[in-house]
Amino acid sequence: MSILLVVIHVIVCIALIMIVLLQTGKGADMGAAFGGGGSQTLFGSTGASTFLSKATTVAAIVFMLTSLTLAYMSGGKIVKSVVTNAPAPVEQQQAAPQTDSNAADTGAQSTPAPDTGTKSE
Asked: First CA to last CA across the chain, in angstroms?
């Protein structure tokens, strides 16, 4: 069903582009008034604007309907976010024990060395 809608949507897009490009601009009326070939047009001097404007309206309505339908169809799927699948943040690693040089820099006292196990009486 969605493939058919995409095909219709692409055809309407191309048709809408062609219809808009076929329309004459507002400045063409002045040239037609002085014999610019208005009688040699395919749809007549006034028929072209009426036919092409109606075709533009129909193509625009079909384009909007297919766009909304495709958006609705794609919005119904539940997609999990990448953020929800991300692993839990790593806890801060324990700070490395300070060496004597670091202790001297910070003004802290170093701990005495452990007893070696020899007892003198």
From this structure: 96
The tens digit of pLDDT for each residue in 11-63 reads 999 999 999 998 877 665 555 556 555 555 555 555 556 888 899 999 999 99
Cβ partners under 8 Å of residue 31, min gap 6: none
The model's pTM: 0.48
Among 19, 23, 14, CA closest to 41: 23
Between CA 101 and CA 110 the distance in angstroms is 10
What is d(CA 8, CA 47) in angstroms, rounded to the nearest whole number?
Answer: 27
* Spatial separation of the C-alpha atoms in residues 11 and 73, rounded to whole Å: 19
